[in-house]
Amino acid sequence: EPEVTQTPSHQVTQMGQEVILRCVPISNHLYFYWYRQILGQKVEFLVSFYNNEISEKSEIFDDQFSVERPDGSNFTLKIRSTKLEDSAMYFCASGTGIFVRTDTQYFGPGTRLTVL
Amino acid sequence: DAKTTQPPSMDCAEGRAANLPCNHSTISGNEYVYWYRQIHSQGPQYIIHGLKNNETNEMASLIITEDRKSSTLILPHATLRDTAVYYCIALYNAGNMLTFGGGTRLMVKP
Questions:
Q1: Smallest CA–CA distance from B49 into chain A, residue
Q2: For the stretch B61-86, what's the b/e string if a residue is b when 16 or more beta carbons lie within 10 angstroms of its beta carbon?
Q3: Are B44 and A101 an interchain contact pair (Cβ–Cβ within 8 Å)?
Q4: Sequence-distant (≥ 6) Cβ neighbours of residue A15 within 8 angstroms
Q5: Residue that wins the pLDDT comparison between A82 and B101
Q6: Does position B36 have pLDDT exceeding 90, yes or no?
Q7: Of B42, B98, B102, the CB nearest to A105
Q8: CB pairs below 8 Å between A and B: how many?
Q9: CB A43 within 8 Å of CB A35
Q10: What are φ and ψ of residue B7, in 5° steps?
Q11: Is the pLDDT of residue A93 over 80?
Q12: How far apart are alpha carbons A90 and A107 in whole angstroms?
């Protein structure tokens, strides 16, 4: 069964450093998402991406964040200058985009980001 | 998207049916009810969704009241692996973001 994959599973970085989190969505999916979950808190939406552009973003997704689909398979989340409060589990998700009203989002296993 | 309300936690005996309620009294006629779950710290997993009619798949059944103000997710024979946080989400357009509330923490006990 096809699945969303994410790398790395755990990333440790120093405050102020740039990080890139990578995701490989399910092949032929057209909608892509990033969510995050701070330890012990709710899953929060960051951004959705469709047709090579951001379709929706939350207040969390400020200028320090960016997303890119550099090729036909990868979807990346970049944090330009990490802060301590960016420490969280980051989940990538994808959806077919075919069934606009009833599409399902499939989530990856997550990348745990630890900012020291 | 309409707000949903779920009990924070529930217990269920292994092998018994787990019935997880959700209130969505302000749901509009075009909003679907989606259920996802999150096992430990894994990525959320889709379970089922519905609009008006009851739905069943290999994982669960979804019962939606006639007025659509509430629904119940039924896991017919809960196993220990069903221990997870279950989220009920009302969604108009599936391409939109998912808004996760607190969910219901289901503990399946031997």
A1: A102
A2: bbbbeeebebbbbbbeebeeebbbbb
A3: no
A4: A82, A83, A84, A115, A116
A5: A82
A6: yes
A7: B98
A8: 63
A9: yes
A10: -65, 145
A11: yes
A12: 10
